Amino acid sequence: MSKDGFFLVLEGIDGSGTTTIGKMLESELKSKRIKSHYTFEPTYGPIGSVIKNILSRRVVMNTTRKGEVFDQKSLALLFAADRIDHIRNEIEPLLSMGYIIICDRYKYSSYAYQSLFVSEGWIREINTYAIEPDLLIFLDVDVDIGLKRVGARGGVKEIYERRGLLKRVRSNYLNFITKVKFAKIVNANKALDDVYLEVRDILFRRLLKYGYKI
Ligand SMILES: Nc1ncnc2c1ncn2[C@@H]1O[C@H](COP(=O)(O)OP(=O)(O)OP(=O)(O)O)[C@@H](O)[C@H]1O
Ligand SMILES: [Mg+2]
């Protein structure tokens, strides 16, 4: 291992539970006095804030394309820029201090969501400098179950929260995740506690292999 910490990424379509499970993991690790840090993308940083405004439709095209969603190529570049900022400012410094990073969404979200609109090859290219995680866990939820969960959460519908789009996002994820050697797929349709136990088990086994005492 070239660094001290451990980099976990949680991915999944909307409502798969990445935020809930990520925070649960951080809280259990902290209760065991293991240095851990939950973080997410898009970030609260300068570029992430712009992305959030675009996703919630507070930023739209002007002039002749009035009201249309911001250009998807620009959005993909913003995600990649936010990610580099996230890595340099937060992820790498904490990894070098030995932290376990739990990252809620990462470059795989870009591969799965932005490739609905622009070529996946280009998305991968603009994410060339996004370091590989040690472990990627994909929370696989049925689109209808995921939508029901985010629907119950309330708030503004984001631009990707549409059934047809999410079906394509899920199939994009499954297409490439099965080829990623450090990835695991967890059935996220189950009750929260069951999903959590499975994720925790995968992570803790891996941490033991990395020499963590848990
Ligand atoms: N396995 C589960 N069973 C039932 N409810 C769940 C489960 N996982 C998460 N939830 C609930 O579903 C809602 C959405 O979960 P959460 O915010 O973690 O999803 P998410 O994957 O982060 O969504 P998004 O990608 O939109 O941020 C929350 O209210 C959460 O408590
Ligand atoms: Mg979330």
Morphology: globular
Backbone CA Rg: 17 Å
Named at the architecture level, the CATH assignment is: 3-Layer(aba) Sandwich
Q: What is the number of helical segments per DSSP (H or I, 4+ residues)? A: 8
Counting helices, strands and paired strands, the structural category is alpha/beta
Q: Terminal Cα separation, in Å?
A: 18 Å
- In quaternary terms, these chains amount to single chain
CATH-level-4 superfamily name: P-loop containing nucleotide triphosphate hydrolases
Main β-sheet description: 5 strands, parallel
- The helix-strand sequence is EHEHHEHHEHHEH
Q: Give every kind of bound small molecule, once each.
A: adenosine-5'-triphosphate, magnesium ion
State the domain count: 1
Q: Report the top-level CATH class.
A: Alpha Beta
Q: Number of DSSP strands?
A: 5
Strand content: 5-15%
**Main sheet strand line-up:** 2-3-1-4-5
Description:
With about 210 residues, this protein is an alpha/beta fold. It has a single domain, classed as P-loop containing nucleotide triphosphate hydrolases (Rossmann fold, 3-Layer(aba) Sandwich). The protein has eight helices and five strands. The chain has a five-stranded parallel sheet with strand order 2-3-1-4-5, with helices on both faces. Helix 2 crosses helix 3 (about 70-95) and helix 4 (about 105-115) packs across helix 7 (about 165-175). It is globular. The two termini are about 20 Å apart. The mean pLDDT is about 90. The structure holds adenosine-5'-triphosphate (ATP) and magnesium ion (MG).
